[in-house]
Each structure stands twice: as C-alpha cells, then as structure tokens.
Amino acid sequence: MATQSVSKEFLKELYEKDYYRWVNENLQLLKEKEYDSVDWENLLEEIEDLGRKHLESVISYMAIILQHLYKIDNFKIYEYSGKGWINSVLHARKSLEKLFLEYPSLKQKAVENIEKAWKRAVIDLVYWFQRPENEELAKKFFGRLPTEKDFPEKCPYTYKQIFEYKPWIKEDY
Predict the structure, then answer these.
(1) Do 56 and 120 contact (CB within 8 A), yes or no?
(2) Per-residue pLDDT in tens (0 to 9) along the chain, 173 residues
(3) Per-residue model confidence (pLDDT) at position 79
(4) Maximum distance among all alpha carbons in the chain?
(5) Inter-residue contact 67 to 86 (CB < 8 Å)
(6) How many CB atoms lie within 10 A of CB 80?
(7) Is the dihedral of CA 107, 112, 119, 54 positive or negative?
(8) How far apart are CA 123 and CA 147, in angstroms?
(9) Residue 35 in contact with residue 69, Cβ under 8 Å?
(10) What is the secondary structure of the chain as a DSSP string?
(11) In terms of Cα–Cα distance, which of 32, 38, 89 is closest to 66?
(12) What are the Cα distances from residue 165, in Å, to 25, 93, 141, 142?
C-alpha cells in the first residue's frame, strides 16, 4: 500500500533503481486517487512506450515479410530453395494477425509504416548478402556485394501483398 509519505523524488529514484516497485507504488497511488503524488512524467513516458512497443513489433514483422518476399521473387535459384523464407513469411503474418486481433488500431499504423518496414528490409537484405555463404549469390545477382542503392527505394509491395501474396503457390490448380 502506497503511503502519503512517498515523495515524487523518491518515486523518480525508484524508477531508476527498482522499476517493479515503482510500478506498484504508482498503481497504488492511482487506486487511492492520490493523483498529486504520482510520478506523472515517467508514467506518461511508460504509457507512450507501450504503444511504441506494439507498433515496433508490427514494423519488424512487416520488414521480415518484405525481405523474404523480395528474396523469393528475386533470388530463388532452385525449385526447392526458399522454404525457410516461406516459413518466415507465414510466421510473421500469423503474428501480425494476432497483434491486429488484440490491437485493431495498429492496422492503420501498419499502412502508414510500410516504407519504414521496407527500409529495414533493405538493410537486412544488404547484410544477408554479406554473409560468407551468400557471397556467390551476391556475385551472381550483382557482380559484387550489394548496397542499399541496389534495391528499390520505394517498397515494391502493397499492403495487401504483405498479407496475402504467396509467390510460392502455383495457380494451376
């Protein structure tokens, strides 16, 4: 139970030293409607971070999807290659579906952040080609190690494609 003797200075120190206790002290103050004693500055920052954390997950999952769709479309050299990429796409799509189920407003944020996700995907693609086992692929497709300039500046996939495009499925059935 929070006491009225808990000062804002003490709470600010707790925020740095014992986050769990800081949360519980502020929670108790809120329950007791002791609003003047709450560490509002850090509490508001934490609330903001909660929203950013979920948006960050959405952008990261979209970047994974974009990176692997691009690999499938452009760098698949054998009929059997790319299974790991397909699994990554499916896993990221499933994870996004779950996030959107819990936080529907993130769908609009996803649309707004496709270019940010693409930029991250391009960085990952560049580093993927730098791995020693991909040196031959870099030579085959670029004649050298690629840079960010070797990939489209704008995302080549639409929002719908991020969630529905399946280049690994043949349409002949």
Answers:
(1) no
(2) 444 557 888 898 899 999 999 999 999 999 999 999 999 999 999 998 887 899 999 999 999 999 999 999 999 876 666 789 999 999 999 999 999 999 999 999 999 999 999 999 999 999 999 999 999 999 999 999 999 999 999 999 999 999 999 998 876 54
(3) 64
(4) 73
(5) no
(6) 6
(7) negative
(8) 9
(9) no
(10) ---TT--HHHHHHHHHH-HHHHHHHHHHHHHTT-GGGS-HHHHHHHHHHHHHHHHHHHHHHHHHHHHHHHHHHHH--STTTTHHHHHHHHHHHHHHHHHHHH-TTHHHHHHHTHHHHHHHHHHHHHHHHHSGGGHHHHHHHHSS---GGGS-SS-SS-HHHHHH--TTS-S--
(11) 89
(12) 48, 11, 23, 26
Rounded CA separation 54/72 (Å): 27
Note the pLDDT of residue 22.
Answer: 93
pLDDT of residue 173: 44
Both tokens of 82, joined, read: 């790319």
The tokens describing 70, both together, are 């691009």
Residue type at position 164: E
Neighbour count for residue 10 (Cβ, 10 Å): 14
